[in-house]
Structures are given as structure tokens and as C-alpha cells.
Amino acid sequence: MYLEILPENLTCTQIHTHNHSTKNIIISSALSSKMHVPEFHPVTTIFVILFALSFSIISISPTLLFLCAKGRKAKDIKNKTFIYQSLKQAKVILNGSSDGKFRRLEDISTILKSRAEPNSRLIRAFGIDNAFTTSDPQHHRDFVNRASDLLNLSNSQWKSLAKHIDTLVKGNVERQRVSSFDGHSRTVIFSQLLQITVLRAVLSVLFPNGGTPQLSEEEQDSIAYEVAEKITSLWIESKSTEITSNPRDLESLMEACQKLLPGIDTRVENPLNLILPAFETLWRIVLRGFLEVQFRDKENFSLNKSLFSEYLTSPTSTVFMREDTRGVSVSHIINESLRLYPPTKRVYRKIQTESTQPDVAIDIEQIHRDPETWGSDANIFRPSRWRKSEMNKTIAAAFIPFGMMPLICPARKIFGPRIIGIFLAALLGAINEFGELDVVGAMVEGEVLLENGRNSYGEMGMRSRK
Ligand code: HEM
Question: Which residues form a coiled coil (predicted)?
């Protein structure tokens, strides 16, 4: 097998060298058997020739080694990215060890480079220069430290943030729901509501000196939506080799950011360095968590809703972890949402070998849905699986929505899970306040998992019955 045969402490660079030489040994033995062909039965001869030929082809192209590699590995031939779907492989590729313990800190610049290359499209699209795009260990450390400091909130800051998010969500629902022209009920589009409110909340956390825009709430919502839409379209364009984005698109995105952040000079500091990793991940996971709790986990709806409403009133770590009579907590619901719908579905690396530079991806989504780890109900949203009684080391190690050491997300322990909880709580409160609601757009009920794409559920919303 490909990665499975590796010694435990190989670095990414060594993986392929080792694999390559292993294959070469097999190739030479296959070729030497070809020399004895006349002594074989004709059928055996044909078989041996085919066998030898196939190995000769493999020896021509090191890239083919990847295509032939065994193990649970899919491939994306179109983009020439090799996708790995097992935790063991993820550990080897992301931290250069098979036990998950990253040991070789001197290799950090190689690891940063392996990530910076696939992310260079983000520099072209957004002009960013952050932890995801740099190969310089000092720059990386400074950026991650800055992000960690910004995300480290005191209890009173959590309280103000929860209030702020609740106000943003309620205000936006009210504005989306009632047309300012005719006072009639309209549809509240969830993705729109979340993109606007998550962006505005994230700006308030990441830019404490961002200043107060001299704009009405409605104007701020509308500019926030413009920013969100532009980020999405530039993101999609950056992935395409055919579309080249117009430089004017980035300029107008910066102008919109500047209106929301009058206190900083966006020509000097690109706010997208911080906005991108936070905004893109958060709004998508909150949407999935909300759809599960509101529409799919019906049996537990009331109990889940009370957990969230208590957390919104008192957004402390104690209430976040507090288990109800079922043994379920807000934290368990968030973990289960992140397990089934990790917003970073895959992390990408370009690996340097002696002869090739393959693009590889770790498929976090598949690792999170593997029945071997998560059991036969791996594809079911079941927050109770996070209760202590069901926890074990294998499950804990296979939960990697925030990546892995050494490039693990600074929001993983506290900020990420807790702000998702606050958004879910605010949304559940605001949406259910309006009495009976009609769902508009995609059907989300049933056993099939929700879609996890950026554009899924873009039309989905609710309209209150009058
Ligand atoms: C649910 C929310 C989030 C998820 C699922 C998430 C996910 C991830 C993942 C998977 C990585 C590793 C990427 C890789 O290995 O290439 C990562 C790294 C990172 N994330 Fe997050 N993230 C979230 C929220 C945030 C927020 C709010 C920020 C704040 C700015 C942030 C900042 C970062 C940074 C700076 C890194 C790079 C860490 C390093 O290189 O050492 N993330 N995140």
C-alpha cells in the first residue's frame, strides 16, 4: 500500500522518495523475469510481458505511481490532485508523522511552502499575504499570534459579542422579512442573513480599531452582502484556470471593506488577510448546524432549542459545556455539525520530492464520515455521540475540522466552537419568534446528508404565515 507501508517518522519529502525506490526495486525484478521468457508456458509468458510492461509504464512517469497507489485514496485527475481519505495518511502528509505528534520543528518552512504553493491563487485573487500564503516562519508566527490574540476574548467580551450578534441577526431578519416598500411579509434567505451577520460580527472581533461606519444598519447590511458576494465570486474565479478575474473586482471589494472599516486604511493593510479564514468557514458551518437543528433533528428540537437559548443568555464556557437530561450540550451539537459538515472540506499541499511536485489533498469530510471510526451511523447527525461515555482516543484524533499540528487553526479550542454556538442560538431565537413559518427553496428533510458546497441552499429561506 502507498502511505501505509511507510516508516512512522517519514517527512513529506521522504514519503515519495521512499515509495519511488520501493517501486524501482519491483520494476527491476519484473524486468529480470522478462529475460527468462522462453522457459515459460505461453499464457504465463503473455502475463509476464503485460506485467513487465505495466511496470515499465509506471517507471516512465513518477506521477503514475500515485495513480497506482493503493489505500483509500481517490484521485481528481482533471486538476491532478491526489486526494487522501484516511487519518493515517493525513497525519503523514500534514505533520510528517504517523502518530500525529509533530516532532521536527526545523521543517516548518518546508511545510509552510507546501501549503503556500496551492494557496498562491489567493494572492492573485485577493492580494492577501497571511499565514496561508507565506513560507516565512517568522511572518507565519506573527500572523498566527496576532489572530490568536484577537480571538482570545474575556468573559465580558463574550457577553457583548453575544448581544451584538443577537441584535445583528434580529435586525437583519426583521429587515429581510418586511419589505420597506409595502410592509408585506417577504422571505428571509438564510445564506444571505448569515453572510451579512457573520461578516459584520467577524469585523467587530478582528478589527477592534476598525471604527464606526457612519451608515444606517440597512446600509451596513447591504455593503456587507456586497463584500460577501464579491468574496464568493473571486474565490470561485480563483479556482478556475479558465476565468481570469478583473482587477476592478478586487478594487471594488476593497472599497466596500473600507466603508465598513473606516478606522483602518485598506490600502496599507489588506483586511482580507484576517477576514477570509474567519468569514468563509463560519457562515457555512452555522447554516448547516441551523438546518440540522431547525428542520431535521425534529425529535430533539425543543430540548436543543432550550440549550441554545440558555447559552445565548449566558454565553460562558460552563453553559456551553453543560449537559441536559439526555447528556447533550451545545458543545456536542457544534462538534456534530463540524464533523458532518467541515467548512474546510479539504486541505491542500504541494509536496516536494526528488522528481515530482504532486498536489495532494486531505479529505477532512471523508475522514469525518468514515464508518470504521464513527460507526454504522456515521452519516447521521447524532450529537449524543460526543457524550463522555461514547468518547475514545480514536474518535478524538479523527476529528480534525480545524486541521492538524503544526498548522492548526487558532480558533479551534474556544473561539470557533463558541461563536458558532452563539450564531446558532441567535438564529434559532430570531427565526422561531415569528410564529409559523413556510420553508422556501430546497428540501432539507430526510436521511440524506445536507450538501456541503459553498453555493448550496442559496435560495433557501422562510416566510412567516400571516
Ligand atoms: C469554524 C471555523 C473555522 C474552521 C472550520 C477553520 C478551519 C481551519 C483549518 C482546517 C485550518 C488548517 C488549514 C491547513 O492546514 O492548511 C485553519 C488554519 C487557520 N485558521 Fe481557521 N478555521 C475556522 C475559524 C477561523 C477563524 C475565526 C480565524 C481567525 C482569523 C481562523 C484563522 C486561521 C489561521 C490564521 C490559520 C493558520 C494556522 C497556521 O498556519 O498555523 N480560523 N483553520
Answer: none
Question: What's the number of domains the chain is made of?
Answer: 1
The protein residue whose alpha carbon is closest to atom 32 in ligand 1 is 277
Ligand 1, atom nearest to 404 Cα: 15
Q: Is the CB of 315 under 6 A from ligand 1?
A: no
Q: How far is the CA of 411 from the centre of ligand 1 (A)?
A: 6
In whole angstroms, how far apart are CA 43 and each of 36, 46, 184? 14, 5, 80
Whole domain around residue 202: which residue ranges?
144-344+401-464
Give domain status of residue 136, yes or no.
Answer: no
Nearest to 424 by CA among 178, 158, 198, 199: 198
Going by alpha carbons, the residue nearest to atom 43 of ligand 1 is: 409
CA of 202 to the centre of ligand 1 (A): 14
What does R_g of the chain's alpha carbons equal in angstroms? 25
Give the number of other CB atoms < 10 A from CB of residue 188.
24
Per-residue pLDDT reduced to its tens digit, 275-330: 999 999 999 999 999 999 999 999 999 999 999 999 999 999 999 999 999 999 99
pTM reported for the whole predicted model = 0.84
Spatial distance between the Cα atoms of 87 and 400, rounded to a whole number of angstroms: 9
463 close to 322: Cβ distance less than 8 angstroms? no
User: CB of 421 closer than 6 A to ligand 1?
Assistant: no
Going by alpha carbons, the residue nearest to atom 40 of ligand 1 is 407
